[in-house]
């Protein structure tokens, strides 16, 4: 069975104000033996940590690893009166982030200049193992067509600067300002992919290929295609749903995609960022504009045989039913804040790492 891996980024927030705090180095020192599978590392900002699973074959394995990793991070954050927030962007910010110590991050910050001050964002990255390099590019081309739906289902960052932004994924709008962001072009083959990446390197927009901000790309470290469109998810189960859908699309070589122009995909990504699963999106299988849930139903019908083969069909259907009933992360954050302001939002974020207040 094809393996996959998940990377989740978490913002460390002050427990009272929900403002990002630079605690990642201290927390990593203390996690130690709490992590038995996967690992936890620093990220771009000192107010971020990243949890990475080991390669897994089933959704159940992924949920088990993510739940344990989240709990380890959450415990250490709580000792420091902080929250390891499973959200795509902070509720509010002081716009004065500190970088994690790294020559690579120093180079990124130099290129981004003032953008770094507003780049407090958390993403969910899914790696799908595809050993053949040319097939990896074909998997990327399939995934790029479905980026809007994958984002709509995973929108989880409605707030910014202490306000409701009106967007379901404010993180996506912040990411949009980066070079080589959102939907990449369709690639003819591996050589075409490498040529286009080399052009971006020559331009100086990025210092190395690992800094590409495309919402789907080839990994430079592993034999995987890596989808990066999703916000960090409120729960491990939501994260794994996104991963299983990503794997299903990546492996569905029989898909009959009829509409995948970059401009229209990006326009659909914008609508997914704005409205989540209430958006109207381009349906890659029909070329028509349709409600997001209709597009999701078409995707499920199309990749159903692959999901059945992988043993993922029941988990995916249950996950989609859960989101249809409970709402995306963005909808749940908004509902919590509307119910009781910061206390309810704080509790929701703490529950995501298994550390709700007593």
UniProtKB/TrEMBL annotation:
Classification via Pfam families: GCS2 (PF04107)
Signal sequence extent: none
Keyword line: ATP-binding, Ligase, Nucleotide-binding
SUPFAM superfamilies named among the record's database cross-references: Glutamine synthetase/guanido kinase
Gene Ontology molecular function, alphabetical: ligase activity
Catalytic activity, EC: 6.3.2.2
InterPro entries given in the database record: GCL_type2/YbdK_subfam, GCS2, Gln_synth/guanido_kin_cat_dom, YbdK
Catalysed reactions, as listed in the record: L-cysteine + L-glutamate + ATP = gamma-L-glutamyl-L-cysteine + ADP + phosphate + H(+)
Tagged with keyword Secreted: no
Function according to Swiss-Prot or TrEMBL: ATP-dependent carboxylate-amine ligase which exhibits weak glutamate--cysteine ligase activity.
Family classification: Belongs to the glutamate--cysteine ligase type 2 family. YbdK subfamily.
NCBIfam families documented for this protein: gshA_cyan_rel
Protein name: Putative glutamate--cysteine ligase 2
Organism for this UniProt entry: Microbacterium paraoxydans
């Amino acid at each position: 069975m094809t393996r996959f891996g998940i990377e989740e980024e978490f913002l460390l927030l002050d427990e009272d104000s929900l403002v990002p705090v630079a605690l990642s180095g201290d927390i990593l020192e203390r996690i130690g033996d709490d992590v038995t599978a996967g690992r936890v590392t620093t990220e771009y900002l000192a107010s971020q940590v990243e949890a990475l699973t080991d390669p897994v074959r089933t959704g159940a394995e992924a949920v088990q690893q993510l739940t344990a990793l989240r709990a380890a991070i959450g415990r250490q954050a709580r000792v420091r009166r902080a929250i390891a927030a499973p959200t795509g962007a902070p509720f509010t910010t002081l716009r004065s982030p500190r970088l994690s110590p790294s020559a690579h991050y120093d180079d990124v910050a130099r290129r981004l200049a003032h953008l770094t001050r507003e780049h407090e964002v958390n993403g969910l990255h899914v790696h799908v193992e595809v050993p053949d390099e040319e097939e990896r590019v074909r998997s990327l081309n399939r995934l790029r067509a479905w980026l809007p739906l994958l984002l709509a289902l995973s929108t989880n960052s409605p707030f910014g600067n202490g306000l409701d932004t009106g967007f379901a994924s404010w993180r996506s709008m912040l990411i949009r300002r980066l070079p080589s962001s959102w939907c990449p072009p369709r690639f003819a083959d591996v050589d075409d992919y490498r040529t286009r990446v080399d052009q971006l390197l020559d331009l100086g927009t990025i210092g190395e290929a690992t800094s590409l901000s495309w919402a789907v790309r080839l990994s430079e470290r592993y034999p995987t295609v890596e989808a990066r469109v999703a916000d960090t998810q409120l729960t491990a189960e939501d994260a794994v749903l996104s991963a299983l859908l990503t794997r299903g699309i990546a492996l569905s070589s029989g898909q009959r995609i009829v509409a995948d122009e970059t401009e229209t995909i990006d326009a659909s990504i914008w609508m997914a960022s704005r409205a989540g699963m209430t958006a109207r999106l381009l349906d890659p299988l029909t070329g028509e504009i349709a409600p997001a849930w209709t597009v999701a139903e078409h995707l499920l019908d199309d990749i159903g045989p692959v999901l059945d083969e992988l043993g993922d069909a029941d988990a995916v259907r249950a996950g989609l039913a859960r989101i249809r009933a409970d709402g995306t992360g963005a909808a749940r954050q908004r509902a919590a804040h509307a119910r009781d302001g910061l206390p309810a939002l704080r509790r929701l974020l703490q529950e995501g790492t298994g550390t709700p207040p007593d």
